[in-house]
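WARN retry 2 of 3 for item q-0093 after timeout on previous attempt; input resubmitted unchanged.
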Amino acid sequence: MGIFSFFSKKEKKEVLDAGLEKTKASVFSKLTRAIAGKSKVDDEVLDNLEEVLISSDVGVDTTLEIIGRIQERVARDKYVSTSELQRILREEVAALLASHETEAGDPAAPDALKPYVIMVVGVNGVGKTTTIGKLAYLFKQAGKKVYLGAADTFRAAAVEQLCIWGERVGVPVVKQQMGSDPASVAFDTLNSAVAGGADVVLIDTAGRLHNKVGLMNELTKIKKVMQKVVPEAPHEVLLVLDGSTGQNAFEQAKQFTRATEVTALAITKLDGTAKGGVVVGISNQLKVPVKYIGLGEKMTDLQPFDSREFVDSLFGDTQL
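OK item q-0093 returned
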């Protein structure tokens, strides 16, 4: 049982179904057109399916991998009807996601690591600070003592927003003056967290990507300074991406994974887009697990990611 088990299965499914509705409707309308007038899966159907997946922001490489798997099954089984295509596609997408998932989708902070330090990265505008606030809420609801560090010192709005979230959730926020050294803020945050007996620490960082060398140096410095207080910190580097930007999110992910060692992903704003397929492509191409998905504005709309539940909601009971 994970630490976020206070989510009822029914509530989680309702939020997930509603959040993926636009993606689901888009994918199914395209799939229906792709197999129109066909009774079996042939080269033309596979070509059409490839176009559907790419246009659904699954990404070219992941699409080709999925198509290759389906081709193998068609060749092995000799005859596959178009009515079976949804089931096969569902199975292959689920298999891809599951191969990168961690411990049954439970992103719990291990009790043995205290405080458990999460450094959160991502460009401005993806919902990074909001995601931190929602994560703080999830951990607090799970009975954890949480501290936030406002290390994005280059934007006054980021510090202010984090402080608002801290007040809303009821957790302390450690901050300094605008323009302060982000590593200094991280250092102060960890010192305060250790003294205060914190279970989880979330460190916000600047969302700049125009200079990869500068970004790499800054994130490396923050890590080294934190390790003076907590030798293993950060235990997790969480990259936040805006799912509504589709392939742009994938490009951001590639840039950040070059700049620092990203260990987990949070993909936000899936409720307002038909580009939910990007979850499949990003996770598969980067070989990094998706740990959280954002499905709305409420604090409870950030959910721990479970590949089986995601695929179930994406495909649902609809039949082609």
